[in-house]
Amino acid sequence: MRLFSPWKYLVDIEAQALLRETSWTMPDPEGYPTGQQFLDAYLTPLAQTRQLAPCIHWNTRVLAVTRQGYDKMKTAGREQAPLLVRVQTADGREEDILARAIIDASGTYGQPNPLGASGTHARGEKALAEHLFYGIPHILGQHWNRFAGRRVLVVGSGHSAFNALLDLATLAEQESATTIQWAIRRPHIHQLFGGGEQDGLPARGQLGMRIQQLVQQGRVALVTGVQIEALHATDAGMVVAGEDRLTPVDEIIVTTGFRPDLSLLQELRLGLDPITESPVALAPLIDPNVHSCGTVPPHGIDELSHPEPNVYIVGMKSYGRAPTFLMLTGYEQVRSITCALTGDWERARTVQLELPETGVCSTDFGGSCCQTAPDAKESVHAATSTACCSPAAPALITIGGTRKTEGTCCGE
């Protein structure tokens, strides 16, 4: 799966400083890597640098994070106790690691949202799980036989759905018996296809334009206003209960987004927004109910702090259930937090973030969501290439399990 951001938006400036000490060469800044190319040309060389290689524990799963000797209820002396990270190693052993600070960058890709419109699994969804694929399947590769010549329903209105639909359309050109239905919850297609030529990321804009053409050509049957509450298996195939506009299907691709796994932090005192499940101060900047622009104001240590000292959630997981995260955002989050942990509070609070515009600048309710953009831009500071971390920086534990990047275009 090809990312819609070019290399110039994918490589962290601090990481470049480490990689320049090796034989690494920066890929074409205007090129668009696949997930595999991003892994091979950037993440793997970065993990092999002399500074990072000794610090990475491979095949190690975080089971829980807490305060040593303190559950969530106990207060007296809590801040003086070290944080405890319970991990499971490659050979199945459980170990405890003590740390002064935790940066949880474990993402959301391992916990997809269910198909049900009410936020829970639809009735029958679990029973029919073998015919449902969550995320973006490798339709033109390893999953070819699963979808070739089949009746396929794609559910979801984001870029993950776009990529699945485009691959299905290519498959249908070679396997003519393949049929494609597309169900979205929105009652109308207003802004469904994105910003088009006005998108600051041309590849992202082109995704929407190509999907719009498929719908107009009748190659994809779009049905709006679909609220799935139950699935049934019939002799004719799977059917969505109460929805006669959708014909029976053989396979369903569920691209309804992802949500953070907060279970491993349940003994910590987190300050999370009840809607987005992001840090409270970050939520109004990213809430998709009222904000659909590509203009996210700069944010760092202050917006990402929790009642539990020295505990931070960054990256896609910091956005909770909001889907608009870009990797540049995560890089700046980590830089700000790391500067604070090493005592450089001036640089920690000098945050900068310039994101490409989406080309879509209003909510589904008709109002503008960008009134705050000018003020946000006034607070942008020039980026600096010097590292904020001294050699004497304390050891940090970063929670971020290894995962394949294949199949994700929107986890950046």
Automatic annotation (TrEMBL):
Pfam families linked to this entry: Pyr_redox_3
Alphabetically ordered keywords of this record: Oxidoreductase
Residues making up the signal peptide according to the UniProt record: none
InterPro entries (alphabetical): Auxin_biosynth/cation_transpt (IPR050982), FAD/NAD-bd_sf (IPR036188)
Protein name, per record: Flavoprotein
Lineage per the UniProt record: Bacteria, Bacillati, Chloroflexota, Ktedonobacteria, Ktedonobacterales
